[in-house]
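Data availability (excerpt). The following record was deposited with the supplementary files.
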Amino acid sequence: MAKGTIPLAADPSAATVTVWDPVVRLFHWIIVVGVVLNLWVFEHGKYLHRVTGYVVVAALAIRLVWGIVGTRHARFSDFFPTPRRIIAHVTALLHGKDPRRLGHSPLGALMMLTLMAILAGLGLTGWMMGLDAFWGVQWVEDLHGLLANGIIALAILHIAAAVIESIRHRENLPWAMVTGRKRALGVSDADLAD
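Predicted structure:
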């Protein structure tokens, strides 16, 4: 074995680490399913659409709390996208020197927080549409529709970025959101080969 390589045990997960805890993963997939159901399956404004919206808002509330008290990579303090972090990340990307990260990259964190804000806006405007005070108020309905279209656009961008980053870093990021595990930092593809 070459110096500096990591010996692999019989368990292939020996060269991986847990990054995404069950709360983060469950939140992610509840949002995916909820958005798909409410955009393309359930009739807008009807009972199942509203219930699904409330489930998404409840998941969002739990995730916001978990962003404060949760595991390392779940905490906002681990990845909050400050202007300085974003500029450094974009500069590194432009120079082809962006390192692989275990948690969110600054641009990934910006995407996540933007999606969360839009989900909160969808929940708020959806709830408002059910109130007598806002029943039939056009701007509330228009804003709800605009936010729904924003979710679609950002979801497409999010999926594209996950695919591109998976190829660039040779790591299946969607699968990592299923298993919670990613390749440990410092483990290269050569280290994983026998």
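Summary of structural features: The CA atoms of residues 32 and 66 lie 18 Å apart.
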